Amino acid sequence: MRAPAMLRCAAALAVLLAVAAPAAGFYLPGVAPSDFGKGDPLQVKVNKLTSIKTQLPYTYYSLPFCKPTTIVDSAENLGEVLRGDRIENSPYVFQMREPKMCQIVCKATINEKEAKELKEKIEDEYRVNMILDNLPLVVPVIRQDRNSIAYQGGYHVGAKGQYAGSKDEKYFIHNHLSFTVKYHKDDDSELSRIVGFEVHPYSVKHQFDDKWNGVDTRLSTCDPHASKLVTSSESPQEVEADKEIIFTYDVKFEDSEIKWASRWDTYLLMTDDQIHWFSIVNSLMIVLFLSGMVAMIMLRTLYRDISRYNQLETQEEAQEETGWKLVHGDVFRPPTNSDLLCVYVGTGVQFFGMLLVTMVFAVLGFLSPSNRGGLMTAMLLVWVLMGLLAGYSSSRLYKMFKGSEWKKITLQTAFLFPGVAFVIFFILNALIWGEKSSGAVPFTTMFALVLLWFGISVPLVFVGSYLGFKKPAMEPPVKTNKIPRQIPEQAWYMNPIFTILIGGILPFGAVFIELFFILTSIWLHQFYYIFGFLFLVFAILIITCAEITIVLCYFQLCSEDYMWWWRSYLTSGSSALYLFLYAAFYFSTKLQITKLVSGILYFGYMLLASYAFFVLTGTIGFCACFWFTRLIYSSVKID
């Protein structure tokens, strides 16, 4: 089956499943609802500790929190492991619709090392993440500028401040959690579905009068029969070595009108709307308008050129011809480093296929934020499968350049970009491992990645390359002269560096607003969900990359400069430079990263992302320019 046909079948299957699954009463994997009767146990699971200041996640039990009798790790997909998720059970177990007041979890005595770690996590503003029925824990916060409630993922480990007239800042741990579980009750039965999971953390230095009797101890600071249990006015629990900390919690259940299908709306609206939708739509309209203007100018200019060239009747007129027709004997001459160009084009086609298929499935709802790690897992698997297209594209172009060693070009396609990415990833992972963070990828996962690379991706690249090399070579529409034509001196505005840098501005302008949301979701730990809008921006990116490259390529050929191969790739690919500069601007204005390792991680991953963006946009521009040159030179009469 040919690759385009495979893509069409995958998209058709996705549409069929999306339509048929709800109608038949089935739910997509990972998103099926759970029904609970009154008194049914609800197991709260704990996830990683996260901080926007360090970007280094840690496991929940790396701090001296209460532990269950046996710690059980939940099964995680590849994307969750790469994200640093470590989901485990906890001692917090509720009974459905049965509120509890002032429940003791445990009493812990922290040593000097544990106290130091707690203070460091509080200083770096780490947040504790919990999960109940696949819903992340949120903290409701009243906004100061408006009468509305915002939600923050997870609660802070503790707080830092002055207390009781002390001039020194002290550290206080949040050891009392007041949970609120919202549920939607079925009208026809007593079953309920969980639609909300909130918490208000407090720091309370608990006291008890009698001897310690485990979880049945009567606390004088927390009366389960009082209407108001714990307030922030109580004496807070300071973090000190060799001090006892008593962990407690409340849980109440609230009936909610929110239906199970809409329970994620709260989490998807957590992003602060610093950029309004109006400005986003306005920017899109500007980009579309510019694209339309560029397309109209190109069509009218080309139509006039082709008509003029085809009306040349006399030999004298033909000898006086100028412009892009004059270089027809050199325009399809293979460029320098043609092998590397073939490799980059093949890799870019692989990226394009991966993004297209992944976004189609995301738009259909298969990769919603409720399916943790699903997006990253899908991208990795689709990338591996798209190795078939990478090998096919690179070998087809390589054969057009009269190349004969197809195995050599295949190996370069299979190892160049993945090899660079793996080296960067390995170095960054070593830094994370050195910090003893849960974000470090385990050896087994690293082995699985290498197995996907060597066991599936590389063979598929070879299969695609073999199929592409077997097909007849693409013939240029005009013959190439044996002796290269001398390129005349170019005007300053046609300098390669100048045109390449100018060419990357428009593609970057098409995506920089969406880039803000993507960076926010990655580095500020917020949910990204507007895949429909992302798909629209991706389409606009393709159009702008193609049009700006075609326009500048046309001007270059009119100046009798026929070395367009690499310049067409670099013209749209230069948008990656602006992406990296924007990432540096975002780092300095939006993030609070101060540690060296965290900064290296940020710029390391953004360098890798910019490199991938260069390969993608460069390939789009090259393919558009390749199609354009073949079209115009096959449309004129050349003797």
From TrEMBL:
Highest taxon of source: Eukaryota
Assigned keywords, A-Z: Endosome, Membrane, Signal, Transmembrane, Transmembrane helix
InterPro entries reported for this sequence: EMP70 (IPR004240), MFS_trans_sf (IPR036259)
Major localization listed first in the record, in broad terms: membrane
SUPFAM superfamilies, per the entry: MFS general substrate transporter
Transmembrane segments: 277-299, 341-367, 373-392, 413-434, 446-469, 490-523, 529-557, 569-588, 600-628
Any GO BP annotation: protein localization to membrane
The protein's name in its UniProt record: Transmembrane 9 superfamily member
Source organism of the structure: Setaria italica (Foxtail millet)
